[in-house]
Structure formats: structure tokens, C-alpha cells
Specification:
The chain is mostly beta strands. Helices cover 3% and strands 46% of the residues.
Length: 203
């Protein structure tokens, strides 16, 4: 009866009752520059006392689209350009949630995805990847830095890690053949601090 009532237009509230309770904020917004002019967004669902109707997607503080699912692809972007995103949930009464976390992403080319967490960035590609990921450090960090590559599930579970020994312009292959297909969060840790993070799609 619930489904039939919603189809008939019932918003889940008693007659005369005004729903003023907003949804919870969308959680764990992640982004991936899937091509030179597209960015893919994913987030954890909001909850609401009646139900979430859709999500509003904001790029650089302006709404660029909506989604009834917990993902969105933003297209028509410029190559090698930074964009900032956040997401807001909306219920049937028009109540708005607080904004999700904000994430800044730089478009690259079809095989490169970079999330800028520092003034300089490490290249991580190809993305999506099949069996091996390549990391290139285009700038000098410190040859004495204790560097690690960490791979997490979207729920925060450590899936893979290894120590890396970067030097200027070095290339580091990361073998991911035993990792299951899906989306993961990577972090490059320098002296126990996050130097760069982003998302990787394993095919």
C-alpha cells in the first residue's frame, strides 16, 4: 500500500501535517575525472523521515544538475581544469539537506585522473585500470620522504598498500591484478601525512 500511495501522490505525511524535517547530508562524496571533459561523482545516500526525492549537484557553487541515484556524470568540461563539487539532498516537501563534503578535481585526458590536494600533483593512470597502475612524480618532494601508496574501499577498509621509493621524475608501477573490480580510494602518504588522494576504477 505504501508504494501505491506514493504513486498516487501521497508524500508520506498525515493530512494537514507539514513536513519540515530535512534529509541528512549526502556522505563520502568522491570524484573521478573519467575523461578530459567528464567528471564522475559518487556519494553515500541521504536518509529522510519521508524519503529523499533527488539530489542537487553543484559545481563551483552553481547547480549543474540533479540525480535520483547516488551518482552523476558532469560533462562538457574543459581539459586540465579544476572544478569543485558538492551535493545536496531534497525531499518531497522541498526540504534541503546540508551540503556534502566538497571535493576538487582536475580534468586531464582519457587516461589520467588527478585530484589536487597540494600545489603539485602526482600523475596516477590509467584510470580505469586493468592490472597495473602507474604513478609518476613530476616534482621533487624529498628523496628522504617515507612514501606509501594506500588503496581503500569506499567504506574505508584498507585493500592494498605498499612502500614506494620516489625520486625526481620516477615511475612506480602498482600491481593490482589481484584486486577485485570496483571503485576505490587511493592515498599517497608522505611522512605520515596525506600528500594526494583520489578515486580509481579497477576493471
Amino acid at each position: 500500500w505504501w508504494t501505491l500511495a506514493r504513486i498516487a501522490g501521497w508524500d508520506g505525511t498525515q493530512s494537514g501535517e507539514i513536513d519540515s524535517e530535512p534529509p541528512t547530508a549526502p556522505g563520502n562524496l568522491t570524484a573521478n575525472a573519467s575523461s578530459e571533459n567528464e567528471i564522475s561523482l559518487n556519494w553515500d545516500a541521504s536518509t529522510d523521515n519521508v524519503g529523499v526525492s533527488f539530489y542537487r549537484i553543484f559545481r563551483d557553487d552553481s547547480q549543474v544538475g540533479t540525480s535520483v541515484t547516488t551518482s552523476y556524470v558532469d560533462g562538457g568540461l574543459n581539459p586540465n581544469t579544476e572544478y569543485s563539487y558538492y551535493v545536496v539532498a531534497t525531499d518531497a516537501s522541498g526540504n534541503l539537506s546540508s551540503a556534502s563534503n566538497t571535493i576538487t578535481v582536475e580534468t586531464g585526458n582519457a587516461t589520467t585522473s588527478v585530484i589536487k590536494t597540494n600545489a603539485e600533483s602526482i600523475r596516477v593512470f590509467p584510470n580505469p585500470c586493468a592490472h597495473e597502475l602507474t604513478i609518476i612524480l613530476p616534482v621533487k618532494i624529498s628523496e628522504t620522504a617515507d612514501l606509501k601508496f594506500m588503496l581503500y574501499s569506499l567504506q574505508g577498509e584498507v585493500i592494498y598498500f605498499r612502500d614506494v621509493n620516489f625520486s625526481f621524475g620516477s615511475v612506480q608501477p602498482i600491481k593490482l591484478s589481484e584486486i577485485q573490480s570496483g571503485m576505490y580510494i587511493y592515498k599517497i602518504i608522505a611522512n605520515d601525512q596525506i600528500f594526494q588522494s583520489g578515486t580509481i576504477i579497477k576493471q
